[in-house]
Specification:
Length: 362
């Protein structure tokens, strides 16, 4: 295929105020209200992983989504749905997308919604991964239906960061995607849908706790993140994709590992250092408009053990979080019904969110 390169540049309205939407990803059994109460911060958005088309064909999954969206409404929060087609990209029809759009329209006037469609599509670990032509066609079809049938839904494109591309060890590895040796072309551009159908872009960045006895990161250790580690992870995508598309960007998942079975640096020291990097660097880069902290304690096969990713499981971590983001006016914590949210254009159409924050140094 040769060099792909960026498509024509897009533009965004510049009418919005400064701000980064403050979000979180909670386990299903933790209420949004209790999380807000514990952190003493009214978060502006929450993210949930949703199987598709199960959400429209399975009553249980539909009920779960309904409860989540109602909880967002009750807490004055936006909703982000990470849609996953575990049956593959051909496991649903356009009719399923129409059903979903009609379902989401129940919250047309109350809950702005992000749809993060089949994330990390450039990776080799999901059934929708490393199929650029099919992925683009299905994203475009999905987005067109959403835009035709809804006015409160924004489509989000979130590839995996390029480190390790093309990940030949994965079950869905496709050797043909490693085309011309240009990492930006191969890892990102060839997976980009029609840019007019992409409202936001994004990326997930975790700190896995590295020790490097052989110069290679071995995850699972309670160590402090290196200086500028978050910046180094995000910069290639931000500079070569986000800025060239001129799209708002979300950090769709982030957190710092604390291994409950190991000694080392304290949980508060690790997570405070990571929060300072994530929220600090993002403030200086005006297209980053939302950050979602992965607030869960779970088993991770990568280290064959339990990881506490939470920011509300330790009082010292909660205090650090409040100190970093709680009083800073650049972080949007207000309800979607607030004047700030209205100026951001999120009450009816997340697609228009932009920023006039000045770009800081790398």
């Amino acid at each position: 295929m040769g060099r792909i390169g960026p498509p024509h540049g897009g533009t965004l309205p510049s009418r919005s105020r400064n701000g980064i939407i403050l979000g979180a990803i909670l386990p299903a059994n933790e209420s949004l209200a209790s999380f807000n109460a514990h952190t003493r911060i009214e978060h502006a958005a929450f993210l949930r992983f949703v199987p598709f088309p199960n959400i429209v064909v399975n009553w249980t999954e539909r009920a779960k989504a309904h409860l989540f969206l109602e909880e967002c409404r009750e807490n004055g929060a936006m909703a982000a749905l990470t849609l996953e087609t575990m049956g593959g990209l051909n496991n649903y029809t356009a009719k399923h997308v129409e059903y979903l759009a009609d379902f989401l329209n129940k919250w047309n006037d109350t809950v702005p919604i992000f749809i993060r469609y089949n994330h990390e599509m450039n990776g080799s670990w999901y059934p929708w991964g490393q199929q650029p032509d099919l992925y683009i066609a299905k994203f475009n079809e999905f987005a067109r239906i959403m835009k035709n049938r809804t006015s409160h839904v924004a489509m989000v494109w979130t590839p995996n960061l390029e480190w390790g591309f093309p990940w030949p060890e994965g079950p869905y590895y496709n050797a043909s995607i490693d085309q011309d040796g240009d990492i930006v072309d191969d890892a990102f551009w060839q997976f980009l849908p029609d840019q007019d159908l992409v409202d936001w872009v994004g990326m997930s960045v975790y700190y896995w706790g590295c020790e490097e006895p052989d110069g290679v990161c071995a995850p699972g250790y309670n160590t402090l993140p290196k200086t500028r580690m978050f910046r180094d992870a995000v910069l290639t995508f931000y500079a070569n994709v986000t800025q060239r598309l001129n799209k708002p960007m979300m950090i769709s998942e982030t957190a710092a590992l604390f291994n409950t079975d190991r000694l080392g640096a304290s949980e508060a020291a690790i997570k405070t250092a990571w929060m300072r990097q994530v929220y600090g660097w993002s403030q200086d880069h005006h297209l980053i408009r939302a950050i979602f902290w992965f607030n869960q304690h779970k088993f991770e096969k990568e280290i064959n053990g339990e990881v506490d990713w939470r920011l509300d499981g330790n009082d010292d971590v909660v205090l650090s979080y409040r100190q970093i983001v709680g009083d800073d006016q650049q972080f949007i914590k207000s309800s979607i019904r607030s004047p700030m949210a209205a100026e951001l254009g999120v009450t009816h159409r997340l697609r228009t969110v932009s920023s006039d924050r000045r770009e800081g140094p790398d």
